[in-house]
Amino acid sequence: MRVLVTGAGGRLGQATVPRLVDAGFEVRATSRRARTGSGVQWVVADLASGAGGFPASSGGSCGPVGW
Ligand SMILES: NC(=O)c1ccc[n+]([C@@H]2O[C@H](COP(=O)([O-])OP(=O)(O)OC[C@H]3O[C@@H](n4cnc5c(N)ncnc54)[C@H](OP(=O)(O)O)[C@@H]3O)[C@@H](O)[C@H]2O)c1
To answer: Which of 25, 54, 61, 65 is the most buried (most CB within 10 A)?
Structure first.
């Protein structure tokens, strides 16, 4: 199963992502800056501005972030 984790580099995200990976989830993680590691696919996205393809609103397509 696939899961998208926003704020994956933050305190909660760093605690959550490894657990999701260990549980077998395919994780896509967002950050406002380029990141690597943690066994996940990182995507640069700013949820406030929409930069990186993520829309500022909750509606519509997630563009390159969603899959
Ligand atoms: N920690 C707790 O115990 C706790 C308890 C209750 C509620 N919460 C809430 O849960 C949320 C996360 O908490 P946290 O402790 O993990 O916070 P955190 O360590 O400050 O991490 C926040 C994350 O949000 C991302 N972020 C901030 N602005 C963003 C934007 N415009 N677009 C995309 N990503 C953005 C940052 O990612 P980048 O810097 O990588 O872009 C960062 O990784 C917060 O809303 C907090 O109030 C936390």
So the answer is: 54
How many residues are listed for the chain in this entry? Answer: 67
CA of 8 to the centre of ligand 1 (A): 8
pTM comes to 0.85
In sequence order, which residues have a C-beta less than 8 Å from that of residue 40 and are 6 or more positions away? 5, 8, 17, 21, 27, 28, 29
Mutate which of 6, 11, 44 for ligand 1 pocket (most atoms within 8 A of beta carbon): 11
Q: How far does Cα 44 stand from its chain's mean position? A: 8
What's the half-sphere exposure (Cβ side, CA atoms, 13 Å) at 11? 0
